[in-house]
Amino acid sequence: MGYTKLSFQLPFSIFTIFLLCSTIPEISAVGYPINVWPKPTTFLWTRPQAILLSPNFTISHTNHPYLTAAVNRYLRQVLTEHHKPLVKPPLNLTSALPLSSLIITITDVTLPLTHGVNESYTLTIPSTGSSNATLSAHTVWGVMRGLETFSQLVYSKPSIVASGLYISDVPLFMHRGVVLDTSRNYYPVEDLLRLIKAMSMNKLNVFHWHITDSHSFPLVLPSEPELAGKGAYGEGMKYTAEDVKRLVEFGMEYGVRIVPEIDMPAHTGSWAEAYPEIVTCANMFWWPAEVEWADRFASEPGTGQLNPLSPKTYEVVKNVINDVATMFPDTFYHAGADEILPNCWKVDPSIQTFLSKNGTLSQILETFVNSTLPHITSLNRTVVYWEDVLLDSSIKVSPSVLPPENVILHTWNNGPNNTKRVVESGYRVIVSSSDFYYLDCGHGGFLGNDSQYDQPPGTDPGNGGSWCEPFKTWQTIYNYDITYGLNETESKLVLGGEVALWSEQADSTVMDPRIWPRASAMAEALWSGNRDETGKKRYAEATDRLNEWRYRMVTRGIGAEPIQPLWCVKNPGLNCAYGLELPRLEGYTGRICRNWGQQFDEDSFKHKLPQIF
């Protein structure tokens, strides 16, 4: 990942330094003069050109409620968006008749939006409007992906569409998602709707909604109203059944599934507001000064874990599961099971008694899983757990408790190593490695008395970038291969991945720029890959395309952050690149030529070159 090592010897000369500190002549780094994100798997366009889109353009389609909503949305968009690319596509606008219609054909309109549904499509746009454009797919959901592609091929005012092309497209991975935590900070429903809209633009298909945690319980449940009544931050910071219904329907219209996560048995301090008797170590100080890190009560402020030895626990938990399964129709149910801390359970008298009789904490967790997993699967759900339930060093269950046919594990620790461990055990896996896919990393810690930030001024760049530093750049995300180190059989168990925004330091004010366009980078990597036809990583080529795509997302109302200065966007190619492709230098964070213009010390530079090449 990053830079490749040069294989030739460099003469140590001023000319060499000039090469290192200059750019090569501008060339087009984009395969075609118009951008589609994520890049289609097959894009045939022998003579790039464009024709006008008729102001009376129509889309013919089979009647289907979600498809009709999508067609109406995209028809309105292609006729009124009038996107003006920052760099005008060098396309010949022919005098051919305007394109007047797109005809959609679907093999099976009845297939529901579930994991593994066929999202492939083919799109043909003729070189003249005397013929119709055609979009063919096996399912409604494949049509939605094709409509998004078609919309990105339309630009300008009056509307112009790329013509004389053929696209055949299919995702590499079936599961492509975003995790959003709405417990630590609350997000209004409108934010979640906008997130779903942006996900659909990027052909992402799973909104993994981490709804509750120790900090708040914002979901109003009919059978357990007190959980939100006492556990939410306030009356205006709750999600009602009507809110959920609206979100689920909106997701269906955009081809995005919503997978709910009610984390348990850890991360449940907010449950204690309604049921203090079923939560251990609730409202305790998370890491007393006199104890070691391993003996803390929680991984961050906000303590509390459900007590698996209390019968009352299961009365409440099963009500929660039933209500959530009713509100969310998706066949995946994320049950959490991460970061269970030994000391939080050990302070409870009933657990102390159990341990005194030679019981173990892992047995307590197995009791919880054995009491809840069968109930969830009885509701026709596949259960997703965080990897900890199997891989944690202190508290974990036996694989015999987790039947692979009913359980998917979600990795977040230790990069590709834990993914390897999970698939070697025969489990399907979703990847959210914190080393690559955590969007909150690198923004600093949030504890108010963190002494590492109190340091004398000087040349030191400063301490503290959060527990999972550094910041995960779009390049880091784009270049990550989620099947790294796996053989062909193991790779087939990797369902896909999710970028994650944990919300200790995020809310509505920063949601869009924290997620986009970095999530777009994962979207392309999981849709069509991160390598070109020769097998080389294509992040350099992707830069200009992502710049343009980010700009288009902004015009569509998504507050995606910039990835380069506007000058770079308006001067595509390799103007904003290194003069040579540089190898990775451990600890290097700046430009080699930062001090270019000062007196050059050739001997000093010679000494540093072995570290660089």
Would you give an account of this structure?
Belongs to the glycosyl hydrolase 20 family. It comes from Forsythia ovata. By secondary structure, the protein is α/β, with parallel strands linked by helices. It has helices at about 15-20, 65-80, 140-150, 190-200, 225-230, 240-255, 310-325, 340-345, 350-355, 360-375, 390, 415-425, 475-480, 490, 510-515, 520-525, 540-555, 565-570, 600-610; strands at about 40-45, 50-60, 90-95, 100-105, 120-125, 135, 155, 160-165, 165-170, 175-180, 205-210, 255-265, 280, 305, 330-335, 380-385, 405-410, 430, 495-500. Helix 11 links the parallel strand 16 and strand 17 (about 405-410). Helix 2 (about 65-80) packs parallel to helix 3 and helix 7 (about 310-325) packs parallel to helix 10. It is globular and about 85 Å long.
Average pLDDT taken over every residue: 89
User: What is the domain tally?
Assistant: 3
Protein structure class:
alpha/beta
Q: Between the first and last Cα atoms, what is the distance in angstroms? A: 15 Å
Assign a percent range to the helix content: 25-40%
CATH homologous superfamily (4th level) name of the largest domain: Glycosidases
CATH class of the largest domain: Alpha Beta
Annotate the secondary structure layout:
Elements: H1 14-20, E1 42-44, E2 49-60, H2 65-80, E3 92-93, E4 99-106, E5 121-125, E6 133-137, H3 140-152, E7 154-155, E8 160-163, E9 165-169, E10 175-181, H4 189-201, E11 206-212, H5 225-231, H6 241-254, E12 257-264, E13 279-280, E14 305-306, H7 311-327, E15 332-336, H8 342-346, H9 349-356, H10 361-377, E16 382-386, H11 388-391, E17 407-411, H12 415-424, E18 428-431, H13 474-479, H14 488-491, E19 494-501, H15 511-515, H16 518-527, H17 539-555, H18 566-570, H19 602-612
Parallel strand pairs: 2-3, 2-4, 4-6, 10-11, 10-19, 11-12, 12-15, 15-16, 16-17, 17-18, 18-19
Antiparallel strand pairs: 1-9, 2-8, 5-6, 5-9, 7-8, 13-14
